[in-house]
User: Fold these one by one.
Assistant:
Number 1:
Amino acid sequence: MRLMAALGAASMMLAGCMQDLGPAGDVLARDAAKGVVNTAVQARFPGVDARPLTDCIIDNASSAEIIQIAEGAIVGANAATTDLIVRIAERPDTIRCTVNNSLGLNGLTL
C-alpha cells in the first residue's frame, strides 16, 4: 500500500515539475514519453524500427497526454498508457506523419 502511495505521489510530482520547468520540463517529459512509446511500439511490432512512429506519436500528443505517457517511465506503463498510445497512433495526422517519415518524405506531405 505504501508503494502505491509513493508511486502516486511521484507521478503527481512529475506532472507538477514538468509544468513548472516550462520548455525544459517539456523536453524532459517528451524524452521520458518517447522511451515509453518506443517500448510499447517495439513490443507490438518486434523487429520494426519504432522511431518514426514514436516521433509521430509524441508530435501528435497533447501536453497532458505526453505527461500521462511520461508517468509510465516512473510508475510503469499500464493498459491505460498503452491504450492512449494506440489512440494517438490511430489519429489521421499521426498516420500521415508515420507514412511520410517511413518513406523519407519528411518535408513533403501525402
Number 2:
Amino acid sequence: MTVPTLGGAAAWAVDAVAAPLASVRRVLPAAHGLPLYVGLGALALAGALEAPTALGLGIGYAVLRRKGPFARFTA
C-alpha cells in the first residue's frame, strides 16, 4: 500500500496557522503583553469580565505600552 505524500497539504496547513500568528505579532505592541491579553480573553470567556471591559483594558494597556509610562520598557 502506498502512503500519499502530504507536501502540499502540510504547507497549506502551516501557512493557515502562521498567518493569524503573524498578524497578532504585528498588532500586539510587545511580547511581554501577550500573557495579559490571553488572561483578559480567558476572563471574558469565563464570564468574569464583560467583553467590552476586557477589550477596553487591553486597548488601554496597549496605549500605555506604546505611548505612556510603560513605553520605556518595550524592547
Number 3:
Amino acid sequence: MNQKNWTRREALLGLGSIAGAMAFSSCAPSTNRAPQKLSEEALAIEPAIDPKTLEKPDLKIGYVPVNDCAPFAVAWSKGFFRKYGLNVTLSREASWANSRDGLIFGRLDASPVVSGAVTNARTGAEGARHAPLCAAMTIHRHGNAMTMNREMWDAGLRPLQEYNGDLERFGGELRAFFEKRPLDQRIWAVVLSSSIYEYFVRYLAASMGINPTKEFRIVIIPPPQMVNNMRIGSMQAYMVAEPWNTRAISGNEGVGFTFAQGRQIWEGHPDRVLAVRESFIDNNPKTYRSLVKAIIEACQYCSKPENREEVAKLITDRAFTGAKPKKPGAPIDKFTRPGIVGDYNYGGFDGRERLIKTPETTLFFDLPPHLATVPGDHSTFLWQSQSLWLMTQSVRWGQLPEFPKNAEEIARKAWRTDLYREIATEMGIQCPQEDYKLEPAERFIDRKAFDPSNPVGYLNSFEIRANAPRSFFLS
C-alpha cells in the first residue's frame, strides 16, 4: 500500500482539470430554471388550510436537480403546497452546498440537504459553519450510487454484487488500480463534505482494508457536473444521487458503470432530510406543520407503485432534473426511470445487461417488510440514532476531535422526531414510539452492527481511522 504523504500542492495538481472544467461551466449564463406557474391541476385544489391562518404562507424552498427533487415536484404540480395553505416559490440550487448555505444565511426558508448536513452544522464537523439547523423528516432513503470509469472496468473492477461478498478480492483489485496511477488519477468525487456520501466512500474503502486518506483523494463536485468531469478524466469514481449514475451508463456510453448503490453499503440509510433553521420552527409553528404535511403527502404519492412512472416523467422537466435524452425516439424518462421505478441497470462494457428490479432503489415512504421491523416505521420517519451514526463517522475521519459528550442532545435538537410524531398523528399516520434503534449487522457491507447505546465502543472497533483527512473542496 502506498504510504506516501500527500502535500497540498500534489493534491491540487490532481484537481487542476476539475477546476478548469468547473470554471468553464460557470461561464454559462445564469437563468432561473425553477417552475414559475402552477399547473391547472394544482390551481384546482381548494386549500384545506386558510393561508391567512399561517404565520408565513409565502415560502422559498430549495431543491437540487437530482431524482430526489421528486416530492417537491409533486407537491408543486399536484397542489399539495396549495392544499396546506402555502404559496411556494421553488429555487433550483446549483449544488448541495448552495442548498445548505441558503438556509444558513436565510435566503431559503426550507430545503432538502444531504444526510449529515444538519448534524454537522450543529457539531461544526471539519470546520463546518455552526448553525442551528433542524429536520423533522427524511425526503427519501436510498436513491444514490457509486459510478466508476471505463479505465477501472478495463483494470478488472466489476459491480459489487459480482464479487459475491468477497471484499478482500475487490479490495486487492481496487488497491492495485490506485497504486499504478499518478496523483491526478486517484480522484473520487462526492457531492458535499462531511456528508453521508463522503462517509460511504470512506466506509467502503476501509471495509476492504484500504485507508482512504492515503490511497485516493476525495473532492466535492455538484451533481450535474459529475458525468462531464468523468468524461474528460478529472475523476475515476464518484458517488451521487440518480439520475447522474444512470447518465454515465445509458446517456454517455463509454463513460462509466455503477459499482454499487448506497443501499449496498448501508441498507435503509437516510439520504436527504428536509431542513429549516430552528428559528423558523419557533416563529412559524403552523406554517412548519403545513410544510411537513405537504411533503409527507408528496412522499406518499411518490411511493405508490402506480404513480412512479408518472413521477419519473414529471421530474424530467427542465425545471427539475432536465434529464431528457437527446436521441430521437428515446423514452423521455430514460434516465430518471431506473432510480424511481426500480428497473436499475448497473451497466458495464461487455454487452451484458445487469438489471435489478426492485422498488427499494428509492424509498419515499413505504418500507419493505425486512426494513420495517418496528411498528409504524416508514421512510420519512427520522431515527435520532442514525444521527449518532453520522457523528461516529465524523470522529472516525478526524472531522471532530472526539465523540460529543452531548451527542444525544444534539441529535434531539437536530432531528425533531417529537414534532414529526405530532404532525404525522394529525394526518392519521402511525409512528415508532422510540427515537433509537439497533442497526443490525446484515444492513452494513462490513457486517458490523451499530448499537446507539455504545457509539464510542462502535467507533473504537474500527481499525482504519484517520487523524486528519485531507479533503480539498470545490463548490
Number 4:
Amino acid sequence: MSAGSFVFEELIAESGNSTMRIILREAQAEGEVGAMLRAADCGWEVGPRGIALWAIDVPAHVNYASVRADLMNMADVGTIDLEEGAISGLHRVGLG
C-alpha cells in the first residue's frame, strides 16, 4: 500500500443508495444512457476525457430494478458493459 492510499475499514451506516459502473462500448450510448439516468433521477460521474467509464449513483428513492433492467438491456446488445458495485439493502429487497 502506498502513502496516501485509502483503506476501507468498516461500514458505519448505509445511505440506501446503490452504485453501478458502466463502460460505454459505442459512442451513441452516451446520449441514451444519460437520458435514461436523468429520467430515473440518478446521478453519475464520468472518467477523464477519452475514458468511457461512468460511476452511477442510484438514490434510495429510485426503482433500482427498473434502472438495472434498462442498463442490462443495453449490456445485452453490447453498447455498454455493466458492473453492480454496491447494492443497498433497500434496493436488494426490490430485486426479489
